Amino acid sequence: MNEAFPDIQKIQYEGPKSKNPLSFKHYNADEVVAGKKMRDHMRFGVAYWHAMRNSLADPFGVGTAQRPWDDGTDSIANAQRRVWACFEFMDKLGVDYYCFHDRDVAPEGKSLADSNKNLDAVADELEKAQNATGKKLLWGTACLFVHPRYNQGASTSPNANVFAYAAAQVKKAMDVTHRLGGEGYTFWGGREGYASLWNTNIKREIDHLAAFLHMAVDYKKKIGFKGPFYIEPKPREPSTHQYDSDAAACLNFLREHGLMEHFKLNLETNHATLAGHSMWHEMEVAVAANALGSVDANTGDELIGWDTDQFPTDIYLTTQMMLVILKMGGFTTGGLNFDAKVRRESFEPVDLFHAHIGGMDAFARGLKIAAAIIEDGRLDAFRKARYSTFDTGIGAKVEAGATSFEELEAYTLENGEPLIGSGRQEMLENLINEFI
Questions:
Q1: In sequence order, what are the beta bridge partners of 266?
Q2: Is 178 assigned to a binding site?
Q3: CA 4 to chain centre
Q4: Which pLDDT value is given to residue 2?
Q5: Beta-carbon neighbour count of residue 407 at 10 Å?
Q6: How is domain 12-376 classified at the architecture level of CATH?
Q7: Which residues contact 293 (CB under 8 A, 6 or more apart)?
Q8: What is the pLDDT at residue 374?
Q9: Is residue 309 annotated as involved in ligand binding?
Q10: pLDDT tens digits for 376-414?
């Protein structure tokens, strides 16, 4: 096929002094930072649903996106042509991974059998493109929220026939992800929640969700899929309340239902905002449970009350995120997937490049700053000193589970009022500003 982006050459690193908008100012893929190449730290991914499929409609207007390679039909030929546009985009951008929902890459058919046939036909093309370019699938997932059958949920639907259909769809999405060498598989409960408690039995719905995921674990073992499962938290929108509302809720659900060893979290910045948290908070909660698997790298507009999926440009945000990722030892199978869309006003194909370049540069800066903060050592030293009373004596006994209320009472009666130190928040904020 003809090139989808004929006027755009491969994006090169030109350094911070470059004025070329189609160049990297900070992301130098093979530059070594903190012992690894940038590309290996980041493991950037293109979100197929936004980069290739988003029409840029919003609640008040139709789509504006100009995508010359796409004829706007649901034909298999168009879906296969779109594959090569995506892989050309990744190649010119220098991104190694992509992510997809089953219905992003292949059209829904009139029946499940037709949909499966369509997905297989496009998977053939994806496999060819992967082999031709060396690009890889970071993770796959099933779209269980767009079709009207899922208007009251998928695995949490009150209708058992919908539950069964969702299971069949996930089975096929897992098969295709496995076939394409996907490094993980994500569950996003876009409608796994409720709109009204008047008609909802929460316990039954959550139990059904757990049963669904246990069946997925069983099938994963049966087909020999080795990658991790991810759950992606989001508190609301489109539902009033979604059961995977934030990192802590997901982790508690997994623990309660015996699923913790099989799942990690795929966290999204915009979803953290909707949950009333910072992305830093969500990531720290996940890392504390050894459950941070992958990241949807976007951001949201705090002045708008929905999921705006904007590209990340805030250096404080990317620094915080990279500090956590470095702290946990880096990604293994996960990565930074740009679950972000260009704005409705940015409708030309070249805008896809501008947006991704900006996000990649923002994370490159965040990585370098985070590595410098860690190498400097002052932040870690302060944190360590702040908890030093738990390193020895009565504090060490608390952490070892080797004391009691009676002993702690006796200790306090003997030692009197505790002497506590300042948290030095302002000093630490000034310290971080030295690097940013």
A1: 294
A2: no
A3: 27
A4: 86
A5: 13
A6: Alpha-Beta Barrel (3.20)
A7: 184, 228, 230, 264, 265, 266, 286, 333, 334
A8: 98
A9: yes
A10: 999 999 999 999 999 999 999 999 999 999 999 999 999
Q: Does residue 104 have an active-site annotation?
A: yes
For residue 118, pLDDT beyond 90: yes
Q: For residue 197, what are its two tokens? A: 């408690």
The span from the CA of 276 to the CA of 146, in Å, is: 25
What are the beta bridge partners of residue 151? 153
What is the rounded CA–CA span in Å between residue 118 and residue 107?
Answer: 7
If DSSP codes are grouped into helix, strand and coil, which group holds residue 397? helix
Q: Write out the residue limits of the CATH 3.20.20.150 domain(s) in the chain.
A: 12-376
Length of the chain, please? 436
Is the pLDDT at 59 greater than 90? The verdict is no
- At 195, the pLDDT band (50, 70, 90 cuts) reads very high
Strands 193-194 and 241-242: antiparallel
* Residue 29 near residue 39, CB atoms below 8 Å: yes
Token pair recorded at residue 170 = 């996930």
Do the annotations mark residue 271 as ligand-binding?
yes
Query: What pLDDT, in 10s, does the model give residues 141-156?
Result: 999 999 999 999 999 9
Residue 407, pLDDT score: 98
Backbone phi, then psi, for 432, in 5-degree steps? -65, -35
Query: Could you tell me how far CA 328 lies from the centroid of its own chain?
Result: 16
Residue 296, annotated ligand binder? yes
- Which of 119, 86, 107, 100 minimizes the C-alpha distance to 185? 100
Please work out, in degrees rounded to the nearest 5, the angle formed at the alpha carbon of residue 270 by the alpha carbons of 141 and 68: 60
Strand, coil or helix: 210: helix
One of 104, 175, 244, 246 is an active-site residue; which one?
104
Which structure tokens are listed for 431? Answer: 């310290």
CA distance 28 to 361: 9
Q: Write down the catalytic residue from 41, 50, 101, 277.
A: 101
Q: How high does pLDDT run on average in the chain?
A: 97
- Pair 172, 119: CB distance under 8 Å: yes
Residue type, 218: D
Cβ atoms of 326 and 353 within 8 Å: the answer is no
Question: Is there a catalytic annotation at residue 101?
Answer: yes
Q: Which tens digit of pLDDT belongs to each residue from 243-293?
A: 999 999 999 999 999 999 999 999 999 999 999 999 999 999 999 999 999
CA distances from 242 to 11, 153, 161, 194, 209 (A): 40, 10, 21, 7, 12
41 annotated binding-site participant: no
Taking a C-beta distance cutoff of 8 angstroms, is the pair 53, 334 a contact?
no
SS3 344: coil
